[in-house]
Design a protein that fits this description.
The chain contains 8 helices and 27 strands. The protein is an alpha/beta fold and about 400 residues long. Strand 15 and strand 16 form a beta hairpin. The chain binds flavin-adenine dinucleotide.
């Protein structure tokens, strides 16, 4: 192992949206501070949400790349170490350890994202289940998915439901399975989820809800999948979209405080005064927010802090778009929970749903189809997710 304490400055682990947004925001203010990005992947810049519609657009992984790693590094004037996994953080020495070198830092930012949750499933086909949480994962699976005529998607949250609808638009047969009784249960109340269910069913989706996937076996061609209710299917591919787990192992090993993610305060600072965390891996004020807008706001605040202007992140209520073109939905605030009461307005143009908390305050809203514009004035009435100071 060689010691390469080169320039120090800001070192960022990860090259996803969080890391690259932070680089851009730092460089808008400071072209000189040394910035090093260390990433386990190729470092090419792409938009991860585009992975939800690669089938209908017939895209390969390379079509999603917006800028190569090398171009990004030279445009932003950073040192970029690709295909380099950080194995350890030595906090006392303020340096990172990789397989071949150490990298010193003055300030370290962990933007290590999240990994797909591994379901406890049996069978010799489990290792062939596909996840779509990175460009590399899609690239690895592209050939199999391009040929697949029938696909089981396990996990009917936001990502699984979007992928199922996109596969249907690309003329695949789709089974969408979740142990939950309804679609996107973390974000949608039953009466909205039912509308989305009807729209997927009308597109030909086989919805296997309220039962778990228990086994995936390899066959000569494709896979046989078995659900807990006894139903079995033969499919060409199984996509797992069963949720994400923040990639917090590095922080844990280094003794930083972690919960669901790496615990940070409003300045994105961890329990170590030289280490920050950002993106899907961060737990800010008790919340993990795996969406682009909170990451953008966090990156803006952290960039200020790193160039010497300490800034707390302020997060107003934010819109979430459900990318299901046959039944488009937008929502904000709290839109699922037994403590909420509902005001529902249904018309031929879609739904406007407002949720109220026990104190009678507006807590969230959902708009569907052509009624999206009605949400914008409500967005401003919702309480901030995180109040900056
Ligand atoms: C299919 C899909 C659709 C989505 N659609 C939307 C949407 O419509 N709207 C929205 O707001 N959000 C959407 N999201 C969520 C959004 O894309 C993510 O919140 C965001 O991209 C996360 O970025 P990140 O940089 O935190 O993590 P990641 O993109 O996961 O990046 C993590 C980086 O860390 C690196 N890394 C990890 N460990 C190490 C290590 N030890 N050493 C070195 N490098 C390491 C990885 O290689 C990677 O570069 C979607 C997500 C998916 C999967």
């Amino acid at each position: 192992m060689s010691m390469e304490p080169t320039e120090k400055g800001v070192v960022i682990v990860g090259s996803g949206f969080a890391a690259y947004q932070l680089v851009r925001m730092i460089r808008r203010q400071d072209r000189a501070v040394p910035v090093t990005v260390v990433t386990a992947d190729s470092g090419d810049d792409y938009s991860k949400p585009d992975l939800s519609h690669v089938f209908s657009k017939q895209q390969r992984a390379s079509d999603l790349v917006k800028q190569s790693a090398a171009d990004f590094a030279s445009e932003q004037n950073i040192t970029l170490l690709t295909h380099t996994r950080v194995e350890q953080i030595l906090r006392e020495e303020k340096c990172l350890v990789t397989a071949t070198r150490t990298i010193s830092y003055d300030k370290l930012v962990l933007a290590t994202g999240a990994s797909p949750f591994k379901l406890p499933i049996e069978g010799d086909g489990v290792d062939h289940m596909i996840t779509l949480n990175s460009l590399q994962e899609y690239d690895n699976a592209h050939e199999q998915l391009a040929k697949a005529k029938k696909v089981l998607v396990v996990g009917a949250g936001l990502v699984g439901t979007e992928i199922a609808m996109d596969l249907l638009s690309a003329d695949r047969k789709v089974i969408l399975n979740d142990r939950a009784e309804r679609l996107i249960p973390g974000l949608l109340p039953e009466f909205v989820a039912n509308q989305l269910f009807r729209s997927l069913a009308a597109e030909g989706c086989d919805l296997a809800l309220g039962t778990e996937l228990v086994r995936v076996n390899r066959m000569e061609q494709g896979f046989e999948v078995l659900l807990a209710n006894g139903q079995s299917y033969q499919v060409d591919a199984v996509i797992s979209a069963a949720g994400l787990v923040p990639h917090k192992q590095l922080a844990e090993q280094a003794g930083l405080k972690t919960g669901r993610g790496i615990i940070v305060n409003k300045q994105l600072l961890t329990s170590d005064s030289a280490i920050y965390a950002l993106g899907d891996v961060a737990e800010i004020e008790g919340q993990v927010m795996p969406f682009l807008q909170p990451i953008m706001l966090s990156a803006g605040a952290l960039a200020n802090t790193l160039v010497g202007k300490e800034t707390s992140v302020h997060m107003p209520a934010m819109l979430v778009k459900v990318k299901t073109p046959a039944y488009p939905i937008q929502l904000a605030g709290r839109t699922a929970g037994d403590d909420l009461s509902w005001k529902v307005d249904v018309s031929g143009q879609g739904m406007l749903v407002q949720s109220y908390d026990e104190a009678g305050q507006l807590a969230g809203f959902i708009t569907t189809e052509q009624r999206m514009p009605e949400g914008f004035p409500l967005l401003r009435q919702l309480p901030a997710v995180i109040q900056g100071v």
